[in-house]
Amino acid sequence: MALTAQAQKAYDGFREAYGDTENVRVFFAPGRVNLIGEHTDYNGGHVFPCAISFGIYAAVRKRTDRKLRFLSANYPQVGVAEGSLDELVPSSDAKWTNYPKGVIWAFERAGEILHRPEVGSLKLDTGFDISIYGDIPSGAGLSSSAAMEVLIGSILRELYGFSMLSNEDLAFIGQYSENEFNGMKCGIMDQFASAMGKEGNAIFLDTNTMVFEYAPLDMKGMKLMITNTKKEHQLVDSEYNLRRQQCAEAMAQLQRVCPDKKALGEFTIEEFEAVKSVITDPVVLRRAKHAVYENQRTIEAVAALKADDLVRFGQLMNESHVSLRDDYETSCTEADILAEEAWKLPGVLGSRITGGGFGGCTVSIVREETVPEFIEKIGAIYLEKVGHEAAFYELEISGGPKELQL
Ligand code: ADP
Ligand code: MG
Predict the structure, then answer these.
(1) CA–CA separation, 180 vs 176, rounded Å?
(2) Active site (catalytic) residues
(3) Which atom of ligand 1 is nearest to the CA of 56?
(4) Would you identify the CATH topology of the domain 5-217+398-404?
(5) Residue 326 · residue 337 · CB < 8 Å
(6) pLDDT means per 10 residues in the chain (406 residues)?
(7) Distance between CA atoms of 362 and 30, rounded to whole angstroms?
């Protein structure tokens, strides 16, 4: 057997919790990092994420009755949590199990979610036992929740024969479950990036049309670094949902003068500047400005990457951070310190907060030969100013969900 240490942990957890590993299958789904295009996915804009080698692993086996048993090595205090296919409702104690349960619940609504009536309601005939281990830093904006949803979606597809579902379908079902079962009104980016990941490539996705293309990330002497503030994002659900509401409010006011537009991502900067005065609340105006400008920055950044202009790509990352800090107000002191200190280093082309915000990670483009200096200098300043250490990871781009061979 040649499982990685992480997959082995999920597998060993299965044996310890459920007694044996006969007929157990092992699956993986990746987290993601977003390079640019933040808070644009629920505004019909563009995003540019990639799947990362950090992810979630599961060892799983079908049962013969309708019981569900969940175990996660990341939540040892919860132990084995039991559920039933006849009781798919969010629970207030074993909270993490609301993610897998939500996906099972959403599968029953798959036809409706995917607007494909022929898919119908995908019901499991029997329950399963599952053991999970994830190495995505927790609450770090690297989308462990989407990884979990895509992981469970791909497991259900493989174990229960739902072969009519594509990876893209799994992304939509996962997003629906997070929106409706877990109350987090996230856009499609996270689940799409996890489900559609391709090694060596970032994904340039237009969330308005769902047209996407893979963009090879050939960094030419540069490294993409992820730096973790180790400040777990807080209030993220309520603040996130509030941003969504504010963008919807801006859009409703803009539609009075631009009835043909359906999303902030459809505005060019010129179009937006010409009509923005119809937005009455100054805070709502700043939120809308971020959504419009960030979308245009993302389009320009991908064009710069294609033209081998990483300097411009980096400048746009910096502008993205400033916009998230000042206009969208989803950054935090810790991420501001990481980004702003990184900008001072000559070996850094760009640095910005990534993910939903209020904590989590920054992503930076760093000249390869200056990576040790980057880690040392940023690490020391961060420790001094914040009082705890940051963590540094070199980005490794992963493929999408997969079954691991035992
Ligand atoms: P993120 O930015 O990582 O997606 P979220 O708050 O959206 O942060 O999702 C984190 C939640 O996902 C956790 O609180 C937990 O409920 C669930 N989760 C993530 N990884 C795991 C895991 N390995 N085991 C069990 N639950 C997990
Ligand atoms: Mg999440």
Answers:
(1) 6
(2) 190
(3) 23
(4) Ribosomal Protein S5; domain 2 (3.30.230)
(5) no
(6) 92 98 98 98 98 98 98 97 97 95 98 98 98 93 97 98 98 98 95 98 98 93 96 80 97 98 98 98 98 98 96 98 98 98 98 95 98 98 98 96 96
(7) 18
